[in-house]
Amino acid sequence: xxxxxxxxxxxxxxxxxxxxxxxxxxxxxxxxxxxxxxxxxxxxxxxxxxxxxxxxxxxxxxxxxxxxxxxxxxxxxxxxxxxxxxxxxxxxxxxxxxxxxxxxxxxxxxxxxxxxxxxxxxxxxxxxxxxxxxxxxxxxx
Length: 141
Ligand code: FES
Fold this sequence. Notes:
Blueprint: H1 3-19, E1 38-40, E2 43-47, H2 48-51, E3 56-59, E4 69-73, E5 79-83, E6 94-96, E7 99-101, E8 108-110, E9 115-117, E10 126-131, E11 135-139
Antiparallel strand pairs: 1-2, 2-11, 3-4, 4-5, 5-10, 6-7, 7-8, 8-9, 10-11
The structure holds FE2/S2 (inorganic) cluster.
């Protein structure tokens, strides 16, 4: 096991410890925050004020059994949204700093869902995002 492997394990362990906690304990996990939204058909409408300046937030998927949606603020202020389901074998991917990491077999993705490291070969499912002065809207289809 080289230094890189040790760092990856430590990163995964800390994310798991912080972010696998029951929701009530997540208030202390400053990097993980779920936000509310209004559903309009296949659109999820988030008030910008609930996101604030957070680099990312999570949305509970409106369909039962689906993993959360990761809403990421790019450096230019625009937003990207991806489903936190690994494209390798379907495990839930977790935010890990500026990356998204799969705890099952080690795949890693960028915050916009591109594959950084396999075994996954395809990017995470992404959603179109539009914005106006007060809202961020995710389009599920
Ligand atoms: S399910 Fe994610 S790496 Fe295998």
